[in-house]
């Protein structure tokens, strides 16, 4: 079992330090905050709004943030929050404000955007409690989804990982599951480096064209119609078929656990960059490793967003954020894949080793070990 696949019953020496259930009968707010580990500094982590968000899910994500922030060398621990509600519901602004009031005293947790929340929500939270990241530009924010911070980091990881598995970006065929904020920017930055987008998917379907798909035109199509699945770009497929397509690089950038024992053997890509959080089961990751597929784990590959958020929190500029993302993700990808090769570990085991060493060192300095 990997550290990010634990459940709340599997607490360990790193955390969680606080699990808080929120309930406000006046607004109808129901929520959860998990502050996992704050040895490196106050926890940064997103606020997920979904009807089915659970305490276990928030804990898994909080632990992933502890590892991601430590691996990224940020002076921040890991935490996460969930609001149990439909993000499309009319009372969303009321719930967000109630959430902000409810977490006022949890000052070792700095909220950021996640599924179902955005910069507008962060502005409301900031208005109430003076701490949030992922703010609109006019409030000092660096718009990480607009600039494609996470997709940029994935392209940086791809360049370094390619050296370990013999995939040169020039001419590499790329398939992307989930052509959203992460996926479409990853496609754009990879295409700028000479790669060829051959497949993309979203909830509406998938598209495949072995001769390549124009990323800008596909983004416009998605913007205009809500989906990439248009026959104008090539062959239309079901989203599930994308995983077995002939390609060099596969980027899961949508939901958890989409790579599992039943589709792991069909994957033809030589390099997988995990854009989404926990997109593969532990079993599937082991199967891929045994087959020699190089996997750059989520909290190494997709750290661009949180690095950007941390630079914003400390008053840095967009240029500084971009430079930090490139430097840190390149360095971590190299170190994780080197350890994986030399110590015969899966890349995830190597990444967890790297991150937990840093958390443990911070805990020792603070006398908390
Ligand atoms: P998004 O909502 O902008 O995009 C997600 C895309 O995935 C959408 O196009 C959606 O249609 C598609 N999708 C959903 N379910 C699908 C399915 N079953 N098959 C194929 N496509 C599907 O979200 P995002 O911000 O791009 O985030 C994607 C993932 O990356 C999430 O797991 C998120 O937690 C993670 N992540 C995001 C960031 C960030 O900076 N936005 C940073 C780190 C990790």
Protein architecture, described:
There is one protein chain. The protein is of the alpha/beta class. It contains 13 helices and twelve strands. The protein has a seven-stranded mixed beta sheet, with helices on both faces. Strand 1 (18-24) and strand 2 form a beta hairpin. Helix 5 packs parallel to helix 12 (318-342). The longest helix is centred in the C-terminal third of the chain and has 25 residues, at 318-342. The protein is globular and about 55 Å long. It starts with 17 loop residues before the first strand and ends with a helix. The relative contact order is 0.13. The mean pLDDT is 95. Bound molecules: nicotinamide-adenine-dinucleotide. Nicotinamide-adenine-dinucleotide is lined by residues 115, 144-145, 150, 177-183, 201-203, 239, 253-255, 275-277, 302, 305.
